[in-house]
Amino acid sequence: MGTGASRNADGGLHGGEEREESLDQAGGQLYVSLKMENYKKKGDLIPHVYGSVPLVGSWDSSKALSMERESTSMWELSFVVPPNHETLDFKFLLKPQNGYTPCIVEEGPNRQLIGGTLQGDARLALFKLDNEEVLEYRVLIKADRVSPFDLAASWRAFQDNLRPSTVRGIPDVSINAVPETGHENGSSASLELDLEHYVVPAPPTSANSGLVYAANLAENPRSLTFAGGCCDRTATIMEMEVAIPDSSKVYSGSGTVESKSVGTFSPLQKQDNHRGLFVDRGVGSPRMVKSSRSAAFSFELKLGSQNKNSMPAAAGAVAAAAIADQMLGPKEDRHLALVLVGLPARGKTFTAVKLTRYLRWLGHDTKHFNVGKYRRLKHGTNQSADFFRADNPEGMEARNEVAALAMDDMIAWMQEGGQVGIFDATNSSRSRRNMLMKMAEGNCKIIFLETICNDERIIERNIRLKIQQSPDYAEEPDFEAGLRDFITRLANYEKVYEPVDEGSYIKMIDMASGHGGQIQVNNISGYLPGRIVFFLVNTHLTPRPILLTRHGESRDNVRGRIGGDSVLSDTGEIYMKKLANFVEKRLKNERTASIWTSTLQRTILTASPIVGFPKIQWRALDEINAGVCDGMTYEEIKKNMPEEYESRKKDKLRYRYPRGESYLDVIQRLEPVIIELERQRAPVVVISHQAVLRALYAYFADRPLKEIPHIEVPLHTIIEIKMGVTGVQEKRYKLMD
Q1: Could you tell me if 367 and 509 lie in one domain?
Q2: Which range marks the domain in which residue 725 is found?
Q3: Where is pLDDT greater, at 605 or 192?
Q4: Which residues cross the membrane (predicted)?
């Protein structure tokens, strides 16, 4: 090997080459890394370093600092040099592992490092053994100037990485044994027999849509509002008129496309009364405009107010798909109208509410327009079954009029930037659907969504819920009289019902039970329609609870640090046991339930005492990635990264940590979790983190995206979401203060 010293590419000094000038003295503290390398080193000799202040303070070999093994051939020692001690005198020595034989000090003069630069000739470290054998070590010295802030962050990261994970070896999917009866996880963690003892009030904006008639959650007619607020409905919508297109003529405008294919997703055999089953995604070619001045394809994307408003508040795939649709699709395709079709009591409004909630959560500006709500506001709630007869011209005209009013409102909203409108009505005749397609021409793309149910039990249940909840029967004291009237109304619709076979459509056939069924799609293409189909394939009405909870308090929670992968605090360990007892009591009759955690050890540890249920680790449930801010407190971010702190403060939803994530990024990676929660027919316990649970809770509670970063999800509290035919209901349990 040669002599001399040289700086490597990242500022280190290597023995064996030429010398270099000293490091810049401006700012920061000197960070030094000493390394020794020898492929023939004897295993019982451990490299050490000793010398003057600040290494040891004396040349006493018994106080020498041990170097850490970095690899089979490399040993390393790193330290920070105080500003007033930037001259280091040191030597290397070898110490036997047993400590009974003398140390072996390297040959030659002391080494001297001044301001990060090695003085004199760089050389190998030579050690003479008793048998006159000489061991040679390659010496590498790296010196950098770093800020105290970076040093502190590096030290925290080093400490976290140095500490072995307490959950290493736990498989991604595991099933514990069934617990012994009567077993409690520690006296301090025992719970009252009655879990209602722990119930606390849910916030005012909780996920209790199941307590409200679903149609009442739809949009109010635009005529009911003005700049100053709401006005009297009798003086507005009852006086409104709208031009109704001639629905007697079959619509054949440019907005419709000849049916090309039917794709069906079905675990069942083909039904006789529906088209044959085969899978065809029906993906059409993108439409591009060829430039008249060149052979190259080009397209124009005008980022005016209309385009900006019609872009979803989203990241990742949703944003990419929206940009592609803006550039490649026709103008009307930038706005999507999902037009529900089906007989009464088939779950249309339920489906509309779920789709609205899902699309809003993904970032699409979506509104639900319920024609029944318009009808009740314009014509009252006391209409008998005769009003819905096809041979009642006055009733037909009145119903077509309110349908046109709702469609007109939806199109006006889209022209202001709305993206997806869900038009909720029976729309059971071709003439009605032709009228809607005529109104949509040049304004939006229509996809019909037909719900078909042949299960008499489900139909009867839906009818009874309708009588109990619908404002149409709020003034009918006799339940049986209301039931007879609704059955007559249903018969009036059945006489003239015409299934959808025109345009683009999705048919949901017997999907409500969650036990199979069919979905047929025709002439469906594009990212968003594809996501809608995928969502509908996985949704059902089976009641089941979903329990959301944060991990027990972690040591980083105590220190106020974000991110990290720390273990639980003493308080967190108590909650861990209380949660296990709660789950055992709450789900004692639900042996098909499962426990979902993130891959971070604080959630895995929180779930560890829960036995008898499968446990699944999801990377998608990991806490929001804080990037370079991971392990810091918000005060440290404010002090050392003030611009980042202010950017986050201004827009927490879209703010992305440097090399990390935003809340919109978290929503994108949580979509598979939402789909699977919708698909599950058994209870699920989700143990995750604050940002992730905020996003999940916002989906069930239908909270606006801008509110997600501010939703309160306290520690040691369980949020129970009950999903079922009546909607979503919420209950909260607080197990600890």
Answers
A1: yes
A2: 545-734
A3: 605
A4: none
Structure tokens, 16: 């064996």
- Lowest-pLDDT range, 13-22, 199-208, 335-344? 13-22
653-661 average pLDDT score: 95
Secondary structure (3-state) at 494: helix
Return phi, psi of residue 557, to 5°: -60, -45
Q: Are residues 467 and 520 in the same domain?
A: yes
Identify the residue whose tokens are 């318009």.
Answer: 374
CB atoms within 10 A of CB 197: 9
Report the pLDDT value the prediction gives residue 255, as an integer from 0 to 100.
39
Contact 678, 514 (CB under 8 A): no
Condensed to tens digits (0 to 9), the pLDDT of residues 248-287 reads 554 444 333 333 334 444 433 333 343 333 333 223 323 3
| 3-class DSSP state of 563 | coil
Longest dimension (CA), the chain: 115
Domain count for the chain: 3
pLDDT digits (tens, 9 = 90+) for 658-689: 999 999 999 999 999 999 999 998 999 999 99
pLDDT of residue 262: 42
DSSP conformation class of 102 = P
DSSP 726: T
Structure tokens at 535: 């969502």
Classify burial at 195, counting beta carbons within 10 Å of its beta carbon; exposed 0-12, middle 13-18, buried 19 or more. Answer: middle
Q: What type of residue sits at position 521? A: V
Strands 420-424 and 505-509: unpaired
- Asked if omega into 54 is within 30° of 0 (cis), the reply is yes
Please, what is the average pLDDT of the chain?
80
DSSP state string for 411-467 = HHHHHTT--EEEEES---SHHHHHHHHHHHTTT-EEEEEEEE---HHHHHHHHHHHH
Give dist(CA 605, CA 608) in Å, integer: 5
Residues 6+ apart with CB under 8 A from 582: 191, 195, 198, 718, 733, 735
* 428-447 pLDDT per residue, tens: 999 999 999 999 999 999 99
- Angle, CA of 650, 651 and 653, to the nearest 5°: 160
Task: Output Rg (C-alpha) for the chain, integer angstroms.
Answer: 35
Could you give the percent of the chain with pLDDT greater than 90? 48
- What's the CA gap between 702 and 674, in Å, rounded? 13
Residue 5, helix vs strand vs coil? strand
Work out the pLDDT band at 72, boundaries 50, 70, 90: confident
Are 493 and 499 a contacting pair, CB within 8 Å?
A: no
Model confidence at 500, pLDDT cuts 50, 70, 90, reads: very high
Q: Looking at the structure, tell me whether residues 607 and 675 fall in a common domain.
A: yes
At 366-398, the pLDDT tens digits run 999 999 999 999 998 888 999 999 999 999 999
Q: Give the ranges where 281-429 is alpha helix by DSSP (H).
A: 305-309, 316-328, 348-362, 371-379, 393-415
The torsion defined by the Cα of 155, 156, 159 and 163, in degrees rounded to 10, comes to: -160
**β-bridge pairing 594-597 and 684-688:** parallel
Is the pLDDT score of 540 beyond 90?
Answer: no
Is 76 part of any domain? yes
Choose among 489, 449, 448, 493: nearest CA to 466. 489
- Measure CA 284 to chain center: 30
Rounded Cα distance, 577 and 415, in Å? 55
Sheet of 199-200: strands edge to edge?
Answer: 173-175, 614-617, 594-597, 684-688, 544-550, 717-724, 727-734, 199-200
Averaged pLDDT, 630-651: 93
The CA-CA-CA angle for residues 459, 474, 466, to 5°, reads: 10
Is the same domain home to 430 and 564?
no
| 3-class secondary-structure state, position 481 | helix
Task: Determine, yes or no, domain membership for 246.
Answer: no
User: Residue 523 is encoded by which pair of tokens?
Assistant: 């002439």
Counted residue by residue, the chain has a size of: 737
Catalytically active residues are 424, 453, 551, 623
